[in-house]
Design goal:
Order of helices and strands: EHHEHHEHHEHE
Structural class: mainly alpha
CATH class: Alpha Beta
Mean pLDDT: 94
Number of helices: 7
Largest sheet: 3 strands, parallel
Number of strands: 5
Distance between the termini: 24 Å
Strand order of the largest sheet: 1-4-5
Low-confidence stretches: none
């Protein structure tokens, strides 16, 4: 079963925070079937650089985390961003944003997951969870 991890799960697995254990477990559970694309790579890198900007992480620590992540990327199925993903996302925006308050990147992650053939979206983001469920994707991990 293909699983698409969003940035909230990826960052939590590499940078200690409240969801880190759950992120590590769900990535381990789906390790053989993870699908990623340049969108996650960009967002992960940007999250680390923002942490440096906010003085939450040293540049050396950010580089070490990024190197570890890039090493793992070689083990996962990295695919190009599908050409039709923005058309798919625009349709999702028309169908769901007024109801769920989805942001553009929330929609783009869900649309990308679907376009890449994922059956499961891995996220801690509440808006993405609702959006994914509205699009009939399974969502993990379970959060309370």
């Amino acid at each position: 079963m293909r699983a698409y991890p969003d940035t909230s799960v990826l960052v939590s697995a590499y940078v200690p925070e409240a969801h880190s254990r759950a992120a590590e477990k769900v990535l381990s559970d789906f390790a053989a079937s993870l699908v990623l694309c340049p969108l996650q790579e960009l967002e992960f890198t940007n999250a680390l650089e923002l942490a440096v900007f906010r003085r939450e992480m040293s540049p050396a620590r950010a580089l070490a985390v990024l190197n570890k992540f890039e090493g793992h990327l070689k083990q996962w199925l990295l695919q190009p961003l599908p050409v039709d993903v923005f058309t798919r996302a625009a349709g999702m925006a028309r169908r769901h944003t007024a109801r769920y308050g989805a942001r553009s990147l929330d929609i783009l992650h869900v649309a990308t997951a679907i376009a890449l053939g994922a059956e499961v979206l891995l996220t801690f983001d509440k808006r993405q969870r609702r959006l994914a469920q509205a699009e009939r994707l399974r969502v993990a991990p379970r959060v309370t």
